[in-house]
Amino acid sequence: MNDALLFFIAIPLGAAFFIPMVSLMLKWVPDLLANAVMVVLATMAFLTIGQTGIYHLGGWGTLGIDLRLDGLTSLMLMTINTIGLAMAIFSVQYMNQYTSKLRYYSIFLCLVAGLNGIVLTGDLFNLYIFMEIVAISSYALVAFGCAHDELEAAFKYAVLGTVASAFILIGIALLYAMLGTLNMAAMSVKLAAGGLNMPITFALGLFLCGFGLKAALVPFHAWLPDAHPSAPAPVSAMLSGVVIKTAGIYVLCRLVFNMFTVQLVPDLLPILRLLGVASMIVGGILSIGQWDMKRLLAYSSISQIGYIVVGLGLGTTLGLTGALFHLVNHSVFKSLLFLNAGAVEYATGSRDLRHLGGLRRIMPLTANTSLVGSMAISGIPPFNGFWSKLIIVLACIESGHFWLALAAIMMSLVTLVVVLKIQKHAFCEEPKPVAAHATEVPILMRTAMLLLAALCVALALLVLTGVRTPCLIAPAVDALSTWVGPAAGAGQWMGI
Length: 496
Known about the structure:
Elements: H1 7-23, H2 29-47, E1 53-57, E2 65-69, H3 71-94, H4 101-120, H5 124-142, H6 148-179, H7 184-194, H8 198-215, H9 224-230, H10 233-259, H11 268-288, H12 293-314, H13 317-348, H14 359-362, H15 364-378, H16 384-398, H17 402-428, H18 443-464, H19 473-482, H20 490-493
Antiparallel strand pairs: 1-2
Helix pairs in contact: 1-2, 1-4, 2-3, 2-4, 3-4, 3-10, 3-13, 3-18, 3-19, 4-5, 4-10, 5-6, 5-10, 6-8, 6-9, 8-10, 9-10, 9-12, 10-12, 10-13, 10-19, 11-12, 11-17, 12-13, 12-16, 12-17, 13-15, 13-16, 13-18, 13-19, 15-17, 15-18, 16-17, 16-18
């Protein structure tokens, strides 16, 4: 498996460059090749379950590029590539309404390669390179339709994303100047031995701001409510489902728990809890007044990210378990809800809830999968969102943060109100003129929605059957405790 790690990056990058070479002669190649690549990547991701290891690219050891696999990496690879597969299936027919599918798939596969690279890389500079691949791909995909609002949203996203990248690059430069290495495992050992000084503390602050922007945490969230609604539906699903979690939350996890470690910077946990509860509350409240389905879901993403960060900020095993489980769950049900919004817009030409109604009779599969996603995100049992939110609430109570538990419960009720608004106005009221000629979406779009709805149920069954998600969450939680800490044998992990 160590030797295969490079293929998570090489295969989608190779396909991204190959597609334009042959697509002018064979129009069906982009659809077939992109979906075939995603099937291969998703299969490879599931084969990483229970695997650990390291691949030194070029044989340079800790001085060069290395790719690392542990429980958290495996969890993220499964999430990224499973959601990516569903998006590729949905895109086959949905993207026919846009002008250049071959360019879309090329950029999409570059995005997937960058996301895989972020979770696999073991040094900060290559992390930055992969983050820029993800960022540039995301900007292009948000602006893909070239309409006024899409270009405006992409410009705002690019400006704030560049600010975040600048913060991160300056932080990396400061750490390199102080520690003399870019390898995260080696950095962890040196930080544990030498402690913090002013430049390193400043670098940590820059990372918190930069990755907070990438994750759209309040108050760094201004770009998200425009970028996510403006993008094509499968792109919105990728951005909300995996991009903000991979480029933001995942990297924060590695920095806080593996590189700097909680023992070295204990004051980070209260900051994470504060950012998390602020995101949870602000995102939930702002979503209430939205009538655009995708904009409503975008604000809801800010709120759900807050749950994850609150769990991380607790710093306990139960808190980390709930946070990582909710990360996976949110990737699934939020991607599903964005696909539902895309299906509604595809069928009716509108995503304004005031102009919709009666779609349950016209689009029964879209309506029913949307109901599954809505109940999951609201934390209604027995769907997957209920269990991850319950674990986070119990972790808050266990650690004595009762006000955080209360906030989590109250904002879950707010989320229920918001998604019931979608169900009422889009699917249950009398049909409006805009929906008069609507029909159910094509079969591949329905297949993608069914796949994600089934995952909402399957992830809940893992808990209900007492499996306790041993192949998903437990190894990822262990990775945050033992990845590169001095007591965990950092030298062995670095391969020296």
